[in-house]
Amino acid sequence: MKNKFIVVYEGKDWINVSDDIENGLTEIQYNDLQEYLLLKYGNLEMLYIKPKKIMIVNMVGFIKLSSIYIEILPKISISNNIQNSRLRLIEMLTKCKKIPIIYDFIQQENINRISIIEYIQMIFLDELGIQMNKGIYKEYVRNLENCSTVKGKICIGKHINYNYFNKDKVFCEFDDFIEDNNLNRILKAAILKILTSNYNINSMKLNRFLFYFSGVSNEKNIDNILHTIKLNRQNQRYEKSLLLAKLILDNSISKNNIGKQDGFSMLFEINKLFEEYIGILCKSLSFKNRIKCFLQDKRNYLLKNKDRKYINLKPDIVFEKEEKILIIDTKWKAIINHERLNYNISDIYQMYAYVTRYENAIKCILLYPKININFNNEEYNLFEPHINSIELRDVRLDKEKNTIDDLTEIILENFNSI
Questions:
Q1: C-alpha 204: how far from its chain's center?
Q2: pTM for the complete prediction?
Q3: CA proximity to 67, closest of 29, 16, 108, 12
Q4: E strand or H helix at 109, and its extent?
Q5: How far apart are CA 72 and CA 173, in angstroms?
Q6: How far apart are CA 281 and CA 354, in angstroms?
Q7: Deepest of 139, 227, 277, 335, by most Cβ within 10 A of its Cβ?
């Protein structure tokens, strides 16, 4: 049976029991979802639960259970439609290395036909196929065996103990060059997981992969090796395949078989994702080394006491050019709500601490995602003797180029053109 595919916006849409065949859940599906979320994420302030309906807040990603697949997109529209918003979300996750996907692999024409997890699975199979064309990975394994013929070297002590009265055997120590190793067991487990969960991938293709791994045993305790395996020079080419396999298997193995649900979910806090994404783009900007960029800067303190205990300041992004400093702090929320500015006064106080404690700070910017409503930058000047200011700005997220252009404009505008 094909999974029910539902798309919702975090902090906006309810997932509820309904007769709506496309977007509603049955009582059984709802109970399964509630059980999974409460046991796996119940300690996070990300769930609004009311009778027969659930809302997920400040988290994006997907949840996959036995008969339902739910994709959670940002409530602040990244783009002008669901397909582009999903594509941009994948790009942001990739840029922040939350999911090891090569963005160019994603075929935009297929964006409205398959889900994020199916992208991950398809890219895994594509990457694995590239490596399998070069041959399956094998490694040497040390063996001790009572053999009919000499292999490797004879273990004299063990040979006497085992074969004192048996002249037809010789106890040997030797190396076998075999494919049944931890790396291949992980890759095979990922293929088996896809086989039981993805109905859009040709089963013949999956069975062909399983034929390649026919000499590899099925690992029952895959969790024991999943996060401890290390690559070497001989198998480094499998790095992308292994990362994708971990992503497919993680959250679907024994530690997450919660209650009756063999669930698979990947959820990311959108506030942190936005902060990290903007930080990575800021770091990537090139100004001929004339402007330095620091992320999560810890060089300054807000307070101290007689015991020399300090309270850190840690702004998201700090730009520095000669004697000037520009501070940027990201906030994932709509800057305009019901035609009014929608900032928290506590954020303004936080920016005031930054802009007054950093010597030579010219400005502190609260940076918001751009929404479809026109917004003119709002700037507040500090009282004398301070000559700096706090400004509210927004940045486009519909295309990475637009985001970079907006960030470049902000930086050059405040440092003057270089």
A1: 30
A2: 0.75
A3: 29
A4: none
A5: 55
A6: 22
A7: 335
Spans of the chain, pLDDT less than 70: 1-3, 43-44, 77-80, 100-114, 198-200, 250-263, 288-289, 307-309, 372, 417-418
Q: Two tokens at 73? A: 């997109």
Give the dihedral sign, CA 20/22/28/30: negative
Question: Hey, how many other C-beta atoms are within 10 angstroms of the C-beta on 306?
Answer: 5
Query: Rounded CA gap, 48 and 54, in Å?
Result: 6
Distance CA(225)–CA(229), nearest Å, equals 6
Q: What is the dihedral of CA 34, 39, 43, 48, to 10 degrees?
A: 0
- Rounded to the nearest 10°, the torsion over CA 234, 235, 239, 240 is 120
- Tokens 């994702």 -> residue: 273
> What pLDDT does 408 receive?
93
Amino acid symbol at 387: I
Q: Is the omega angle on the peptide bond into residue 385 within 30 degrees of 0, that is, cis?
A: yes
Residues in the chain: 418
Residues in CB range of 377: below 8 A, 6 or more apart:
391, 392, 393
